[in-house]
Amino acid sequence: MKKQRAKLIKRILLFAIVLGILLVHFFVPRLISEIRNPVVSLIKRNRNVNHQIVSYNNPKLKQKDFFFSSFDNLKLSAQISYSSADSVKGTIILLHGIRSDKYQFKNAIQFLSENGYNSVGLDSRAHGKSEGDFCTFGVREKRDIKTLIDYLSEKENLHHFGIWGQSLGGAIGLQAMGYDKRIKFGIIESTFSDFKSIVNDYFDLHAGFSYYPFSNYLVNRTGEIAGFDPNDAKPIKYCKSITQPILLVHGNLDKRINIKYGRENFSVIPSKNKQFIEIDSANHANVWKVGGQKYFDNVLKFMYQQQNKNPSN
After folding, report:
1. How many Cβ atoms sit within 10 Å of the Cβ of residue 132?
2. How far apart are CA 82 and CA 89, in angstroms?
3. Which of 128, 273, 293, 300 has the greatest number of beta carbons closer than 10 A?
4. 21-25, 140-144, 262-266, 307-311: the lowest-pLDDT one
């Protein structure tokens, strides 16, 4: 009887080990980059933070929704909100965080319009109303920004582009600025310097432990599944090519993405016109709220200064 029980326990343990290995190899990496993964959606729904796509239209503004094709033929969704001022100072591309959408910036759209800027909210691939299954953390998204600028220049006759990105959107923004010099300036909030490092940090935050060989294995697997090179999802690498004016912003109580990563990015940017704003007592999600009107005044001052500047200065 004891031998049969021991045999059964061994079989159960062996089954659990094999199942665990299969989950780690095939399923867990999908949770990192597969944006519409049903398990992630279920978890968020149970926590009452499930994100629903709700269109945002401001009746005070002239706006237009449109779709354009990415470099690899995905249908991407965006919305233009036009300046309500007499003269247009530029066009700001707005880049949201992970598992959000273009309406994340709804509170900034009117602010930009009233101060003379068009804004273009983009649903990053696999987010919002855009097609795609996987986020590639800037590897493909930076090329989507280039395609978007091509479209806006040719179809909408828009020029003098800036970029404003938060979290994942900030990482994409940094990579796009290093990749496409038509972006004249950038406002980058609360972002990371290296994809592999931030995945390891997230394990520590949510699971209570971190082990680089394990998190790197998962990152490499998600790259294989999603079809991108995780070593290229490295904003700090592209920061070394940013000569445009740039404003980096980070809360000093950010537990999701430590402020040290913002400082690392800032330290390698060669631009002669770069600023770093530390928002005291702000976490990852409340930079605008804590920074208040003073913060938006600083952002506006920075944008006005860049209106007629050469991006190589």
Report:
1. 22
2. 11
3. 128
4. 307-311
Predicted model pTM = 0.90
Indicate the residue type of 283: N
Q: Rounded CA gap, 277 and 256, in Å?
A: 18
CA distance 154 to 161: 13
Q: What domains appear along the chain, each with residue ranges and CATH number?
A: 54-194+233-305 (3.40.50.1820)
d(CA 126, CA 19): 29
Identify which of 181, 184, 165 has the alpha carbon closest to the alpha carbon of residue 262.
165
The single residue listed with the structure tokens 């944008």 is 303
From residue 286, how far is each of 83, 100, 135, 225, 283 by CA, in Å? 26, 15, 24, 33, 6
pLDDT value at position 203? 82
Each residue of 169-210: pLDDT tens digit?
A: 999 999 999 999 999 999 999 999 999 999 999 888 877 877
278: β partners: 250
